[in-house]
Amino acid sequence: MKLRAEEIATAVQAQRLNAAASIVPSGYSIDSRTLGSGECFIAIRGPNFDGHEFIGAALERGAALVIAHSDTKSLIEPDWPVIRVDDTLVALQQLANFARRKWGKTVVAITGSTGKTTTKEMTSLLLQARFRIFKSAGNFNNDFGLPLSILKLAKEHEIAVLELGMSRAGEIQRLSRIAEPNIGVVTNVRPVHLENFQSMQGIALAKRELIESLPGDGVAVLNNDDRRVRKFGRVFPGKVLTFGVEAAAAYRASEIRSLGLEGEEFRLDHKAQGHRLRLSLMGAHNVHNALPAIAVAHHLGIGFETIRESLIALKPTTGRGELLRFYDGFAVLNDSYNSNPAAMEAVIAFLKALTGFKRKILVAGEMLELGRDAEQFHRDCGKLAAAARIDRIVGVRGLGEFITRAAQEQGRLPAETPFFADSVAAGEWLTREVVAGDFVLVKGSRGVRTEKVIEILRRDHALAAG
Q: What domains can be seen in the chain, in order of their start residue?
């Protein structure tokens, strides 16, 4: 958003403006290392760093404006273009809300334990057929990332599609106050971030904050297969659109058929009419991810024929169901971006159904933030993988060992279920083990860095052309 310094000062309730009121920053940044010339540098004070120490560096890189704490003891020259505030993080969020209100159009906010980023990408793609879309980049979904995303909104954008993440109660409510969504999507409630919650009900209540934040004329898009999410409609007086596979829903998928590496095919039923759709992403779980995107797009006027064409054109993003074919005759599904028990169960189900390969190999990294039942979650996934007859079950780091132990308890040999202390060791083993005819699936929580496995494979084996 193109905002003048005096507008910014008003939006952030500035204590003082030591800058020309007419300055218009070209963008906003909280990192002096990546800040572009002409941008506004917001000096964030964190537990391990203080952005105020880098104000000088930001100005040397061409910062046009700085937002700083009024009580900072860092050296600030009198002639530097600085807006003084009580709290720079609060100021960042206030500024984003000001920009959102000034822009004044439709915001679609998506949250959920799993699938929210894929659903965000699908929703954006479907809406692009008719609207000029802005979407939050990557996983810019927290107290810092969301407001920085909103500040990139431009006048020409007609709809913003934003992802809201959370690890504690109250975060979704705070992010919703910044984004002020008109349409709220909840994909599901699963055992994620359990270390910060005493129960699944606590996670559900935290996700429900999005629906509670919608305006009365807003739209809630809810997963009817999830008994906790289904109940969110009871607290919302506005319009509710439901989606699902198992339960009756306004947008319901059935007759799901795997096309192997080519994706999924399914029937979409809406108002007693069926529509045959094809999804280029692999796995039945991605049909679940597509349903809320279809519901939002159709609600906003996109026809099913256009939806059909867009779904076929959808491509996975790096680390999220990305298929890599190698010259040596094996294939890898790079799903290394993140993991949790529900997501791991989904990829195990995909591997179980997959045909056409001599061996199937699962590289399963530790799943983080699962609380007191973390060991059992890993054991459950190990049992599932063993029952799915996956040829090699590889555990990586920490609690990942319980995946392999559980598989061995089901009769699998130690040679078939190796465990490695880190992703580099797992990658070095795999690069020697993998042969033509293998299909490898790599998945693990972000902190486990299972993308290192992919990097080692690409170091030693050439990707196939095309």
A: 5-86 (3.40.1390.10), 104-313 (3.40.1190.10), 322-460 (3.90.190.20)
Contact 159, 147 (CB under 8 A): no
Q: Please check whether residue 294 is in contact with residue 266, taking contact to mean a CB–CB distance below 8 angstroms.
A: no
Dmax over Cα atoms in the chain, in whole Å? 73
Mean pLDDT of the chain: 94
Write the DSSP assignment of 391-435 as a string of letters: SEEEEESGGGHHHHHHHHHTT--GGGS-EESSHHHHHHHHHHH--
Show the 3-state SS of 169-237: CCHHHHHHHHHCCCEEEECCCCCCCHHHCCCHHHHHHHHHHHHHCCCCCCEEEEECCCHHHHHHHHHCC
Return the axis-axis angle of helices 374-387 and 341-353, rounded to nearest 10°: 0
The rounded distance, in Å, linking the Cα atoms of 287 and 119 is 10
Secondary structure of residue 221 in the 3-state scheme: strand
pLDDT at residue 197 is higher than 90: no
- Give backbone dihedrals phi and psi of 394, rounded to 5 degrees, phi first: -105, 120
Number of Cβ within 10 Å of residue 26's Cβ equals 12
Q: At what angle do helices 88-103 and 171-179 cross, to 10 degrees?
A: 50
- Token pair of 144 as six digits: 């810092």
Residue 156 burial (C-beta neighbours within 10 Å; 0-12, 13-18, 19+): exposed
Any idea what DSSP says for residue 81? -
Residue 3: helix, strand or coil by DSSP?
coil
**Locus of tokens 């339960």:** 247
Of 233, 206, 235, which Cα lies nearest the Cα of 220?
233
N residues, the chain? 466
At residue 306, what is the residue type? T
Contact in structure between 36 and 27 (CB atoms under 8 Å): yes
What's the rounded Cα separation, in Å, for the pair 247 and 191? 21
State the Cα–Cα distance between residues 258 and 206, nearest whole angstrom. Answer: 34
Pairing status of strand 251-258 against strand 264-270: antiparallel
Q: How confident is the model at residue 442 (pLDDT cuts 50, 70, 90)?
A: very high
Q: What is the pLDDT of residues 54-85, one digit of tens each?
A: 999 999 999 999 999 988 877 788 888 999 99
- Both tokens of 107, joined, read 């915001």
Rounded to whole angstroms, the Cα distance separating 169 from 205 reads 8
Contact 136, 120 (CB under 8 A): yes
Distance CA 223, CA 241 (A): 9
DSSP count for the chain of H helices, then E strands:
15, 20
